[in-house]
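Comment thread on ticket #2218

A.B. wrote:
> Attaching the input chain for the structure job we discussed in standup.
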Amino acid sequence: MQGRLDEALADQDTCIRLDRAPNAAHYAARARLLKGLKRWPQALADWQNVADLDHTHWFGPYPHLMRAECFLALGDLDAAEAECDLVPDDYTFPGFMGKTKGSKWEVLDAVATRRRGR
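C.D. wrote:
> Ran it. Output below, let me know if you need it in another format.
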C-alpha cells in the first residue's frame, strides 16, 4: 500500500505544480495522502493551505479538524486543542467516500486521555 500512496502523492505533486492558480481541493487531496503516509508536518502545511485557499468556505472547519489530528499524532497537545477551538462545537464531518470522519470531541478526548497518561 505504501508504494501506491507514494505514486498517488507524486501525481498530486504534479497537479499542484502545474496549477496556474493554487487550488484548495488539490492541496486537500495531497494532505490526505500525506496523512496516510504519516508525514504529519507536510500534511499540516497542506491543511493550512486548504484553509487559506478556501475562499468559498466549501471545506469549512474540516482543515482545522485535520490539523488537530496531525498535531495529536505529533504529540503537540496544545496545538491540537488550539485547532479544535477553530472548529464549531456542533461540527461533525460525516466522512466522504469512506474517508476520515469525526469531530473535535474525538480529538479532545484523545488529548485528555494522553494528558492523563503522562
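A.B. wrote:
> Thanks. Noting for the ticket: The CA atoms of residues 95 and 101 lie 4 Å apart.
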